[in-house]
Amino acid sequence: MNPTTPMDFVTLKDMLSIAPMAVMFLISMIPLLMKPLLGNRELNPKTVLLYNVGAVIVAAFMTTTIFGPSFGGKSTAFANAIVIDGITVWMSYLVYLVTGVPLMLAYDHVATRGRQFTEFAFLMMSSAIGMLILIMSNDLIVTFIGIETMSLCLYILVAMSKEQVLSKEAAFKYFVLGSFASAIMLYGVALLYGTVGTTYYPDIWVGVTKMITTNRMFLTGIVLVILGFAFKVSIFPLHAWTPDVYQGASTPVTAFMSTAVKAATFVSFLRFMNSEGYAQAPQLLTVMTWLAVLTMTIGNVAAIMQSNFKRVLAYSSVSNSGYAMVGLIAAGFGANYNGAATSVLFYLFSYTLMTLGSFGLVALFEKNENTSLEVTDLRGMGRKYPWLGMALTVLMLSLAGIPPTLGFFGKFFVFSAAIEQDMYWLAFWGVINSVISVYFYLRPIVVMYMSEDKEAEVLPMHILTRGAVILAAVAVVVLGLLSSPVYALVKKSVVNLF
Amino acid sequence: MSNTVLFAILLLAPLIGFLFNGLRWKSHNAYLAGTVATVAAGISFLCSVVLVSKLFGEGAVPAVSAKFYEWMAIGGFNVTAGFVIDHISAIMVLVVTGVGTLIHLFSIGYMSHDERPSKYFAYLNLFLFNMLLLILGENLLLMFVGWEGVGLCSYLLIGFWFSDSEKAAAGMKAFITNRIGDAGFLLGIFTIFFLFGTVNFQEIIGRVSGVPDLTWTGPVTLACLFLFIGATGKSAQIPLYVWLPDAMAGPTPVSALIHAATMVTAGVYMICRLNPLFLMAPNVLNVIAIIGAATAVMAATIGLTQWDIKKVLAYSTVSQLGYMFLACGVGAFGAAMFHLMTHAFFKALMFLGSGSVIHAMEGEQDIRKMGHLKKYLPITHATFFIGWVAIIGMPPFAGFFSKDEILWKAFTSPHGHILLWLAGVIGAVCTAFYMTRLMALTFWGKSRVPESVHPHESPPSMSIPLIILAVLSVVGGWIGIPHALGAILPGHPGNWLEHWLHGVILEPAAHGAHPSATLELALMGVSVSLAALSALLAYNFYVTNPERPAQFVSKIRGLYELVYNKYFVDEFYFARIINPLIDASKGMWAYIDVNFIDKTTYAVSDVVRGMGSAAKSFQNGNLQQYAMYIALGVAVTMFLILR
Amino acid sequence: MPILDGALKVGLDHYLYLSAVLFVLGMIGVMMRRNVVVILMCIELMLNAVNISFVAFSRYAENVNGQVMVFFVMTIAAAEAAVGLALAVTVFKKFREVNIRFFEHLKG
Amino acid sequence: MLLSLITFLPLVFALLICLVPKDSWIRPVALVLALVEFAVSLYLFKVFDPAAPGVQLIERMAWVPEAGITYFMAIDGISFWLVLLTTLLTPIAILGSWTSIDNRIKGFHAAVFVLQTSMIGSFLAMDAILFYVFFELSLVPMYFMVGIWGGTRRIYATMKFFIYTMAGSLMMLLAIIYLMFTARDTLGMMTASLLDLYTLKIPFVAGSFLNPQTLLFFAFSLAFAIKVPMFPVHTWLPDAHVEAPTPGSVILAGVMLKMGSYGFLRFVLPLFPEAAEYYAWVFLFLGVVGIIYGALVAMIQPDIKKLVAYSSVSHMGYVMIGLFAMNMYGVTGSVYQMLNHGVSTGALFLLVGMIYERTHSREISKYGGLAKAMPIYTILFIIVTMSSIAVPMTNGFIGEFMILMGTFEASRPFAIAAVTGVVLGAVYMLWMVKRVFFGPEGELVKDEHHPLHDLSVRELVVMAPLIVLIFWMGLFPNHFLNYSKASIANFVENRDNYRLVLDAPATSEKSAATFDVKSDSVAKAGQ
Amino acid sequence: MLTSTDFLFYVLAFISVFFGAAVVIARNPIYSAMSLVITMISVAFLFGALDAWFLAGVQLIVYAGAVTVLFVMVLMLFDLKHEMKTFSKGLLGNGVKLIASGVTLGMLLVYIWSTYATEPTFKPLPPAATSSIKATKDLATSLFTDYIFAFEAIGALLLIIAVGAVTLSRITGGTHHADS
Fold first, then answer.
1. pLDDT for A417-471, tens place per residue?
2. Fewer CB near the terminus (10 Å): N or C of chain D?
3. Cis peptide bond N-terminal to A237, omega within 30
């Protein structure tokens, strides 16, 4: 696909492929440009929100128009640097969703609203751009750029909370550890480049098939890249930043981080693992199995001991990465890549909805920027806010994997993928961990409904946040019951990955 | 009327009586309740007479039966709610409904001052219904229904005055002890079903093979053994007899009906019902005989020492039931049925008599506080006297014939043994002694009645049953006059009963020389004279020289204490079975449930929490520590993958 | 000493050794230094180390792509430095402290 | 659509309840709705064909075809009565909670209806995953019922209940998934439909533990054994019962426990015939231990409700040994005993609830002489007690008798051991009755300030259907068994090669024939 | 025989490792910054030695020029009065850190050695196939053809980071005077 003449190195098709992303980026810059033009006054947050959500919607619309007709097909652009296939399209929508909703949360939320909302929104959109790059990248170096774009914006976003101490500390921790992990991953990229000669995924897949048993430099590269991905999706032992950063960041940012980052990174991770060759390295399978098991276990057992609701959700997010990793391992090391990848994507989708809703609720409960929501603060809420209470119940039950919610089907498909590949050990630990997780997922419910009532706090009338929470809860149930169409869609998106 | 309708009336009459009285259980009207109940029982009696009459005379059928509906049908297990009166159940049904009616009648007077007479009569009718189920059921399962049903009624009636903890406990004890037997009965049913593929009596008997099962674990032996366990429970044999004396806590007519005349004989009835089967299990027969004999002697000795009028009668009942089992055990099922019948008459009579006494004494049951009551209670005394003569086996009263047949069979039957006979005789001697003692202390001698009590004769509703039963106690035995005696009596009366039961009750095949009539007469003489001597001795003790018993007792203090305390059997059960069981249960609850299973679960959760704490402590907030985890992850992963 | 000679003869492996050593030095620095700015420097050191690998691989494979990557990495490194230092300044403004030990409020 | 209607009508009702504007209307509305549901379920009598051995009234459509999950509902003689039991107990529970539940009644009744849907659904689901969905879903409303309206240790109890049950069932989920893939490998398609799963031949190696069938067998068994609950995993039950509000206990004991035994019957025995046979002794043993242990521990409980709860352990032990006797009698008895237990234990919990409402105490030692103060209550209690201890002419007898008979056929030692439960059952119940109702009046009974009132008309109405059922089922078991016979016969005879034949002729004659052969051989052996 | 390039390599390698270590070890952060500059310069020369002259230039300008100056400026800005311990404390922690690093390094070195040192193809530096100008041109071509997307993305990234850095510097925090 190398161009013959320098002049046609960017074709119309290339431009179209990134058009949604580009348009989104450009629209999101409008408020940013308006600000200095209007004499550096703060813009009305509503305007900013409208522009940015509008950008997301326009991007979604464009994605539908441009890629919709050929959904499930596959094409590459920019000299193989990016690939537009079903996953790209599907995950683009997810990214739009997890960008739009946290934006609304941020609009409502006390720690992000007001000053610098323009910049905040722009950075969030930019981070989303990074994710879009990440999910469509077909080249490790593009992946790396995507990760960096996404992460660098996030470092700033975390710091941008109006909360003074914890958010800054969290941002700095996140930054240092993130860069540290990036460097490690980059080292892996370098080794892969050195052994394969390029960093295109297809070349690496071929390299995996050929070299994984023979070339130790190559294998080292693979391991380091995997660990780089593992950091972003917080796999043990690279998960340690997660609770701290999630707690320190303002809740809308946490919602954004915990969903979008994970989803986008997992897609790239999945692409990276898309080679039959991995099956030749059983020791890699063993180690990754252990990482998955430990991730689930550490996430769950640590969550049990937490009292801060955000930390509970943070650890839950760690353990959920473990579950997704179960599917990922099945995809990478099993014979049925597509099936397992579908399960991972489905899981990510379910996880995203549930987590967005949960953090939305947390956001709703925070009265000022310094509030840290303890689980016990939920007392009496079930009575006073029956709909929100019910929404939280549904979300928690879904996270715990109680049927017929989306969370159940997510777990079901992931465990199916593992069992299909005879990875009983993984499935077994997944199940054991589900049981452990029940304890802390049920605690908010216990507190809400079953503790002695106290006068519940008055919640702000954040209509967007409330809407998002309720919608998430409804979606978790409805899409759980209608998981077949969703699954079919995901499956169709995966079908042409090879 | 067709058999079906008759059977329906026979069974439903008491049930309707039960419902009638049960639904107006708050009523205090003893006369209405009693009348309804008595009429219901009377109707049953009439129906049974009509039905039994069909077994007689021209066109006699071997059995009348009626089938109502299919109760259960699962796989090969089909049980019909069908009823049958044959030659065995005919005796039983007449005794039960007849004596039952009389006792109902008696109860009207006896319970007239009670708070809840309706409830009482409702229970009594319910009992009658269940007893009829037991007797008439055409299969083992229906018998079991009645079997448990009478147990339930017994439980309710013993605990009738439930405010008294002791009485409630007695009811419970009765039910639970019976349940132990019932469990055996159940196993017996199973064994029989899987042995013969049916639980219908007719079919079982039809399928019994003629080869005796000489093993201990063969199916026939096991079946009989299980059924016998059931019988020991219901019929108060060793080791399950302990409930019966306590059951005297119930109203006295109940003791008469349930704990003397009818229910407690159900075990004997059941064994007789299945006599062809039991004959095929000689080992079990031996067990039955030994248990029966032992019970007869043991209960009789306990009876020697009791002071409570009803307790004495209760132990006497146990002892007499022992005789019946002894009869069954030596294969003399006819004799057992015979004694069952005569015992029903005289023991019901005596219980009702004692009821009359208690009624007169305003509830006092201790015979030490009675004496010379014949002055106040002439009818009671007269009828009680007849009962006394009957039970100590004086000819020509009913008890003589039946008891003597049992002793004779114990001596001569192929399953018999001289020791069994001896035990029977010892039992008879003891019986004569304690019954005379009872008579003497209650009716004769000096009055020891407290000043406050003014004994008075009972109303006619109570006397009439007494009189009828007294007549029956006299003539009841004449249907089974032994051949040896018949031969020397005028008119040469035959053994009608034996003839009647011929065909439904098999006799064990005799071997060796046919025992002579002379021997029979001699043995008869021995036992009767010994009993008479014993009675005289008792008279001497308690009427002539009232101070002698105490002197005598002081000489055999230890033995007396042992017997007086009923050989400490109850205490043994409590100390060795019940209390350990309760302690064990508490221990199990504490150690298995609370301490082991729950603690294990807690331990698991503690492990999880411990891991959580560990995970938490690793999360110490230090950025460089986190970086170290990453580096460690890199190092370890690389090491593991690339080694 | 042909063996030593061969070992000393500079080849791809030597550049990689150097890269690895510098990389690990950077790692150690990140993990052990207390001054946040020095930590950032060490991250730069790690990225530089990677760059050496890239260029060496590129050179030995006669493949210019590695250099392109180095170009990107340098840009990203610069961006990271910018963000990192900005963050450091922000943190410093709040905490008046650059010792990493003071940033341990979030834990558990 | 009848089955779906029966299943999901309560869910609609739950939503309707949420829309009721006034709190005071909720109870009547809920009662009427529950009765409507019951009436609808009675229509089953009209359309159900008792002679068909397989499942009927099939409703089948794809749900998640990608994973082979279907929406597959059907009924057979085994689930028929359980469904009716559920629809019957719900209005009774609602009426029984008329005065005892006084806060958040809207939520409570909604929970009851959701629970009803999930329970009926799990009895009707013929797709393993669909079953699992309903099975797990049932935890949620019960979790709330115990947790919100329960006693003082309700949170501990409800968490224990939830986690115990969930821990077991998740292993089952893995096993189901494994079966689905086995189906894919042998049948060429992913399927969780029981009709297909029954045709699988899962490799079994006797004596070794690590073979597919054994592992699957134990994975399923664990889930159901916890639900039943069987002996070593029963401790959640007493806690849950003691803390649950009366209607919660009624439904928990009455229906939810049956989901476990039903699961054994529907899944474990036919899916893993060899393993079930090989390891039957384990379950017979645990069942017998459960019977005896439950009874002994019930005996010494100081709390009436805990006593009844442990009695459930004992009773469900019977159900288990009946199932694992794996013959006509045992299984029939177990199916019958499930209904009995629902009726009589449900009634017991209602009665305990009634007295608790009056005195706010369940300490046996504080009672005594209650028979004088509350005679009607006493009569009802004793009737139910008789049913519970299986006195003939009550329902309990039929079930226990059949079970013991089946066990006796399968294994005499276990039967003999189990028969002791008959005695012990009488011991703990009657002792409790004696201490509560008889004897001198206890401190709560003679409390001058709070004289005890006998049962109200409402309470009598609550009890009436159960009392009627106790006798009806005891006197005319055939009325009930006729509906289940064909299915059970099919189950027992074709267990090794179980097919839920859809349109095969009844095989009851065949069953009789096979039986005769067997009994003859036994008879010969005995002679 | 060692050639002059080899010799140059050893010198530069020694300098970069020495000053790299100094970055990590130096007590004074200014010394660290200075050592970093020297390391970067020597790395730039190494790039030169590898015929990547364009990158060498960029390295000098971007790193040694811009980035390090930034570091120094920030260090000056902080202007710490009090002394600070150089290294994290905790014998165990430090031990583990060093061991982990050591293991990583050891493994990397061994694998590099086993993969490349024994392969003769990698041994001598092959003569540059093209002139450095041609190489730079190739680099540019590659950048604007194969890597055009990445290049654009990097451009966007820089823009974003510019905005972000400005934003960060203006964070005030607190809600009380924020809602204007």
1. 898 888 888 899 999 899 889 888 988 888 888 877 676 677 777 888 888 899 9
2. N
3. yes
Segment A482-493, tens digit of pLDDT: 888 888 888 888
- Residue ranges of E strands in D280-368: none
For tokens 């170009």, the residue is C71
Q: Tokens 């605990």 label which residue?
A: B159
Q: Which domain does C89 fall in, by range?
A: 2-102
D525 CB neighbour count, 10 Å cutoff? 11
Q: Bridge partners of A76?
A: A83
Q: Please name the fold of domain E1-81.
A: Four Helix Bundle (Hemerythrin (Met), subunit A) (1.20.120)
Q: Are D442 and D365 in contact (CB under 8 A)?
A: yes
Q: What is the C-alpha separation between C100 and C34, in angstroms, rounded?
A: 5
Nearest Cα of chain B lies from the Cα of D369 at a distance, in angstroms, of: 6
* A152, A186, A191: residue with CB nearest C79: A152
pLDDT single digits (tens) E103-154: 989 988 888 888 877 666 655 666 666 666 777 888 888 888 888 888 888 9
Instruction: Name the residue among A116, A126, A142 with its Cβ closest to that of E149.
Output: A142
* pTM of the full structure: 0.91
Pair of tokens at residue B215: 């093993």
Alpha carbon distances (Å) from D38 to B376, D75, D262, D483, E60:
67, 16, 21, 18, 85
Start-end of H helices in A197-281? 201-211, 216-232, 241-248, 251-256, 262-272
- Tell me the C-alpha distance between E48 and E51, whole Å: 5
> What CA–CA distance (Å, rounded) separates E98 from C28?
7
Determine the distance in angstroms separating the CA of D391 from the nearest CA of chain A, rounded to an integer.
41
User: pLDDT tens digit string along D142-157?
Assistant: 998 888 888 888 888 9
Cα distances (angstroms) measured from residue B295 to each of A284, B265, B352: 81, 14, 24
At B77, give phi and psi (nearest 5°): -95, 100
For chain A, the structural domain boundaries read 6-494
Residues A175-200, mean pLDDT to the nearest whole number: 91
Chain B residues 603-622 within an 8 A CB cutoff of chain A: 605, 608-609, 611-613, 615-616, 618-619, 621
D372 within 8 A of D299, measured Cβ to Cβ: no
Domain contains C62:
yes
Contact between chains at D140 and A397 (C-beta distance less than 8 A): yes
Tally of structural domains, chain C: 1
B172, D434: Cβ pair inside 8 Å?
A: yes
pLDDT class of D522 with cuts at 50, 70, 90: very low
Distance CA B141, CA B170 (A): 27
Residue (of B121, B128, B155) closest to B233 by Cα position: B155
Question: In this complex, does chain E touch chain D, defined as having at least 3 beta-carbon pairs under 8 Å apart?
Answer: no
Backbone angles phi, psi at A426, to 5 degrees: -60, -50
Q: Which two tokens stand for residue B499?
A: 């003839």
Exposure string of D283-304, with b = 16+ CB inside 10 Å and e = fewer, is bbbbbbbbbbbbbbbbbbbebb
The residue extents of the domains of chain B are 1-138, 164-564, 570-642
Q: How many CB atoms lie within 10 A of CB E12?
A: 20
What's the CA gap between A401 and B61, in Å, rounded? 74
C-alpha distance from residue C44 to each of A162, B47, D286 (Å): 30, 112, 66
Chain C residue nearest residue B631, CA to CA: C27
Beta-bridge partners for B80: B70
B623, A172: Cβ pair inside 8 Å? yes
Closest-CA residue in chain C for E123? Answer: C11
pLDDT > 90: percent of chain B: 11
Helix (H/G/I), strand (E/B), else coil: A369 = coil
Confidence label for A350 from pLDDT (cuts 50, 70 and 90): very high
Residue ranges per structural domain of chain E: 1-81, 90-127, 130-172
The verdict on a CB contact (< 8 Å) between B620 and C104 is yes
